[in-house]
Structures are given as structure tokens and as C-alpha cells.
Amino acid sequence: VAHDMSEALAIAAAEEPEVVVIGGGAGIYRAMLPRLDVLHLTVVHGAPDGDTCLPALDPRGWREVAREHVLASEVDDHAHTYLALRRVPEHPALLEDVSGEMPAGWRGVV
Q1: What's the pTM?
Q2: Smallest Cα–Cα separation from 43: which of 87, 4, 81?
Q3: Per-residue model confidence as pLDDT tens for the chain (110 residues)
Q4: Are 98 and 58 in contact (CB under 8 A)?
């Protein structure tokens, strides 16, 4: 467990894991998105309770590499879509860095 961003990055660099999983708050997501290679995103099709939203992604900065639709069921109140997005490093990760609109299928509470 790391107590700040610098400590988390130092631990990851020292241990060289194959995958690093980041759990937010909104500030952590915003700070780490430009550093990601791959983003696994769940887009909920509904209005679930929640107050942490993913910052708007610049669609030029991400390429969709996988998509899976899941219907609402006894265990999932809302239909949702799992997306895997791969970073395109020569473009900004977030729309706040440029003007534009995030694709509707990528919006949702994380």
C-alpha cells in the first residue's frame, strides 16, 4: 500500500509487476490516466448511485481493443459494457488537455 503517488510509482518501478491496478478517487484517476498503457473501463447503462466519475477521455488518445456487453440480471441491476482501451501516446489522454467530446459509449461512473 502506498500513501502518495510518488511512493506508488516508486514501488511499481522497484517491483516491476506485469500489471498495476489503480483504485481511485477521481483525483487519482485524473493523475494516473496519462501514465496508463491500457485502461479497463466498465460503462454502466443506467444511473447507479455513485459520485466518482472518470475524467473525460480524449478519443484520439485511446484505441478500443476489446468490448463485451453484459445484460442486466439477478446479480447485475444494470446492463453494462466492459471496454479495454489502449493508450495512443502521441495524443493527450484527457479532454481537458484539448477541446473535443468523449465518445458516448465511453462515458460512465467508474
Answers
A1: 0.73
A2: 81
A3: 778 888 888 888 888 888 888 877 778 888 888 888 899 988 888 877 777 777 788 888 899 999 999 999 998 888 999 999 999 988 888 776 544 455 555 544 33
A4: yes
One DSSP character per residue, the chain reads --SSHHHHHHHHHHH--S-------HHHHHHHGGG-SEEEEEEEES--S---BPPPBPGGGEEEEEEEEE---SS-SSEEEEEEEEE-TTS-SBGGGSS----GGG--B-
- Quote the CA–CA distance of 36 and 100 in Å, as a whole number: 20
3-state secondary structure 30-58: HHHHHHCCEEEEEEEECCCCCCCECCCEC
Give the HSE-up count for residue 86: Cα atoms under 13 Å, Cβ half-sphere. Answer: 4
The rounded distance, in Å, linking the Cα atoms of 102 and 99 is 10
Distances in whole angstroms, Cα of residue 61 to Cα of each of 53, 54, 69, 74, 85 = 18, 15, 23, 36, 9
